[in-house]
Amino acid sequence: MGAALAVREAPAPHPVERGWQTDRTRAPHATKIVVAGGFGVGKTTFVGSVSEITPLRTEAAMTAAAETLDDLTATPRKTTTTVAMDFGRITLDADLVLYLFGTPGQKRFWFMWDDLVRGAIGAVVMADTRRLAECFPALDYFETSGLPYIVALNHFEGSARHEPEAVREALALPRQVPLVTMDARQRIAVVDTLLILVGRALDATPG
């Protein structure tokens, strides 16, 4: 095989003036999105990859006591954990602003979910194929609450690739729930995931 081709990085996009920024009589439509999933699945990275503002992160250092509660097998380099929420903002369309709320993943913080989810139009449930069972509580929560959601398989280096249909079967995921494979470190992948969720939420809205 020949030498690898050099990859040209795409130029940074020029700032775009939104209608609601230039016309003070208009306001953007603000929408709340929840990003949920198990411990260390990439929720903080997901929010940070697309946020137009410096993400608000409520992280705490992992302590020896926490290491006895949280399974670090798949994330041995993880040194912090979200203890309340991650918060970010992205403008998806001329008049559509999404506010992203990342939930804490550990069971001991689940009591916060009801408050974080209140007012949201939909949720992204992030999953790691090495630890699929850790997203089960989030799936159960949104199935029970009736909030529209999608599942995003976050790709980690060294993790095995599985056919989407095999993952859907393992999760017992209803056919109407979108399942996407993505990399939370890549902005375009996160944007595409959010667009799919917005479409799902619109489809679930009574006409």
Q: Explain this structure to me?
A:
The chain has 207 residues and is α/β, with parallel strands linked by helices. The protein has a single domain, classed as P-loop containing nucleotide triphosphate hydrolases (Rossmann fold), CATH 3.40.50. The chain is 29% helix and 25% strand. The protein is built from seven helices and seven strands, in the order αβαβαββαβαβαβα. Strands 2-3-4-1-5-6-7 form a seven-stranded mixed sheet, sandwiched between helices. Strand 3 and strand 4 form a beta hairpin. Helix 2 packs across helix 7. The radius of gyration is 18 Å and the shape is globular. The termini are far apart. The N terminus is likely disordered.
Summarize the structure.
The protein has helices at 19-22, 43-50, 64-69, 113-117, 136-145, 164-171, 187-204, and strands at 29-37, 56-61, 80-93, 96-102, 122-127, 149-154, 179-182.
Annotate the secondary structure layout.
Layout: H1 19-22, E1 29-37, H2 43-50, E2 56-61, H3 64-69, E3 80-93, E4 96-102, H4 113-117, E5 122-127, H5 136-145, E6 149-154, H6 164-171, E7 179-182, H7 187-204
Parallel strand pairs: 1-4, 1-5, 5-6, 6-7
Antiparallel strand pairs: 2-3, 3-4
Helix pairs in contact: 2-7
